[in-house]
Amino acid sequence: MAISLSDQDKNTLRTAAYGAVSLLAAADAAGSPHKVATHGSIALASATGPIGHVLAERSRIENLDGKSVAGLADRVLPALTAAMDLLRKQDPAEAENFRGTVGIALDAGVRARKGEPGPVLTEMRRKITEALAAA
User: Fold this and answer.
1) How many domains does the chain have?
2) What whole-number distance in Å separates Cα of residue 16 and Cα of residue 131?
3) H or E element: which one contains 102?
4) 69: phi > 0 → left, psi -120 to 50 → alpha, else beta; which?
5) Beta strand residue intervals within the chain, DSSP E
6) Of 30, 37, 47, 74, which one's alpha carbon is 20 to 30 angstroms from that of 67?
7) CB 37, CB 25: distance < 8 Å
8) pLDDT at 14
9) Domain-embedded: residue 29
10) pLDDT per residue as tens digits for the range 7-66
């Protein structure tokens, strides 16, 4: 099944995916946030299928420069849920592709840092995972 996405839908998907990586990096402020963001973003850019095409588009993603982790979470967590809801309605397999893609990006980000993830990073990963499952 082919999916049909408006420009707003594509923006929601990019905000959700790249926002999740940004949120994870922001939660690792005491560790290696740049490594988390870089490796997570590289993983997103490596996505395939319709989701890969959307994530590869070179358009600016608005409002991912929150002044706090809480502000960023207020934007990203609902976008993750909205993205999953949007994709499930059109193509459940593509929704699972999106969930897997974001999960791999988070794994790549966590593995890029030195040492085991601390409780703050682990908790943020849990919140992101819950947002993906909430739809």
Assistant:
1) 1
2) 10
3) helix 92-112
4) alpha
5) none
6) 47
7) yes
8) 95
9) yes
10) 999 999 999 999 999 999 999 877 788 999 999 999 999 999 999 999 998 877 877 777
Place of tokens 């790549």: 108
3 lies in some domain: no
Tell me which residue of 46, 47, 105 sits closest to 76, measured CA to CA.
Answer: 105
* Nearest-angstrom CA–CA distance, 37 and 14: 14
Per the CB < 8 A criterion, the answer to whether 39 and 27 are in contact is: no
For 23, other C-beta atoms within 10 Å of its C-beta total 26
Q: Which tens digits make up the pLDDT trace of 57-90?
A: 887 787 777 788 999 999 999 999 999 999 999 9
pTM of the complete model beyond 0.85: yes
What residues make up the domain containing 86?
Answer: 8-133
| 1 within domain boundaries | no
CA 46 to CA 107: how far, in whole Å?
A: 14
pLDDT at res. 130: 96
- Flag whether 78 is in a domain: yes
